[in-house]
Amino acid sequence: MRYYRFLSESGAKKPPQTITSAQIAAALDIDPTQVRKDFSAIGLLGIGRVGFEVCEVCRAIRVALGFDQRHEAVLIGTGHLGAALLAYSGFARYGLHIVAAFDMDQRLVGSKVAGCTVKSMRSLKPFIRKHGIRLALLTTPVEASQKLADRLVSVGVKAIWNFTPTRITVPPEVLVRDEHISLGLSVIAYHLTHEVDSPSS
Amino acid sequence: MRYYRFLSESGAKKPPQTITSAQIAAALDIDPTQVRKDFSAIGLLGIGRVGFEVCEVCRAIRVALGFDQRHEAVLIGTGHLGAALLAYSGFARYGLHIVAAFDMDQRLVGSKVAGCTVKSMRSLKPFIRKHGIRLALLTTPVEASQKLADRLVSVGVKAIWNFTPTRITVPPEVLVRDEHISLGLSVIAYHLTHEVDSPSS
DNA sequence: TAGATTGTTAATCGATTAACAATC
DNA sequence: TAGATTGTTAATCGATTAACAATC
């Protein structure tokens, strides 16, 4: 979560290998007690008078969140957004590897997008079965999301990262993470509107 | 927020122009009281025995969140993600209009991305001043985010929609909305890892 | 030892849920 | 009128914050 981002960023810079819960709390603008509680929840103990060892904390978080394990995923829909995700190099840090990309458009099949060869949808099911894929990224622009989700679930996919503006329904054991931007949009629109109402405050 | 998405979607289909708080609550899996409370918070009153008028609710939400106003924005960084956002047609529904795109890369300047001509960074400040732009979308892959943010703030930008994996700091009156995917990633990684630990539960 | 920071129990705060008279 | 749904007050629940003995 946010701890990991902060610690792995700041940890590289400064030589001191320990950090106090108060320092973390100040940087992330939360309560020091919260930090200690969260850490102890994942079986992480600090050292009295010194604080926490940065490396130790990072490793514990990696283990708790599963970043140390390799997760293989497929990406469906190689449009603008799909290409952006394929090109993003930050996933590997969290153990996520996109091992194949698929697209409905037969004209795109065989072409390379961000160094990844686009595969035909026909090979989707066999591929997932063969490699035991458990995560799929949905970046299809059209509203075939639900049908696709059903197909994915039927071959054993356990989590769907949904970047489409569609709400999809799946069995309870499957996780769907929606990455809609409409929520962020509403926050921004609200701020801009409110700004107009009271420009000075 | 979520109400608007649900109501504007379902409202188009069914003829009945009214909906009850219980129906909304069931669809969104929240408490009916919560719905009524949220609605009354934006000065929205229902009708006894009937419920709420769908159109009326939608309009009130639009007004409260500022979707009825026109918000003009600039986009900086026309990479994959920038292109995807430019091509996304859903923004207009919320009153957001991306009126110009900028990029550092001089070779891209003048070319068209998703129907929008890429402008030089040199013209960024004058453009913002001239058009009174108050929102900027940051999709620059490199770590020039902070410098860019400073420049944007200095010419009067009031909100920054940050799609870069960098944390940027701005004066308190400026809103920064981070659209990191690392949070979603951690949720997914956790689910997949936990799945392994107990496949049957 | 003295000082600072932790782990954890207790208290506060806010948000969510329940209950019910008022209303159409 | 009778029935159903609202608006709002009261109660519960959980999470955040405070306090403090234990620890290095």
Order of helices and strands of chain A: HEHHEHEHEEEHEHEEH
Number of helices of chain A: 8
Number of domains of chain A: 2
Estimate percent helicity of chain A: 40-55%
What is the oligomer described by this structure? Answer: homodimer
The CATH topology of the largest domain in chain A turns out to be Rossmann fold
Average predicted local confidence, pLDDT of chain A: 89
Q: Compute the gyration radius of chain A: what is it? A: 21 Å
Q: What would you note in describing this structure?
A:
- The structure is a homodimer of 201-residue chains.
- Chain A is of the alpha/beta class and 201 residues long.
- Chain A has 2 domains: 64 residues, Winged helix-like DNA-binding domain superfamily/Winged helix DNA-binding domain (Arc Repressor Mutant, subunit A); 113 residues, NAD(P)-binding Rossmann-like Domain (Rossmann fold).
- In chain A, the strands form 2 sheets. The first copy, chain A, has a 7-stranded mixed sheet with strand order 5-6-4-3-7-8-9. A two-stranded antiparallel ribbon of chain A has the order 1-2.
- In chain A, helix 5 links the parallel strand 3 and strand 4.
- Chain A is globular, with a radius of gyration of 21 Å.
- Chains A and B meet through helix 1, helix 5 and helix 8 of A and helix 1, helix 5 and helix 8 of B.
- The first copy, chain A, binds a DNA duplex (24 and 24 nucleotides) through helix 3.
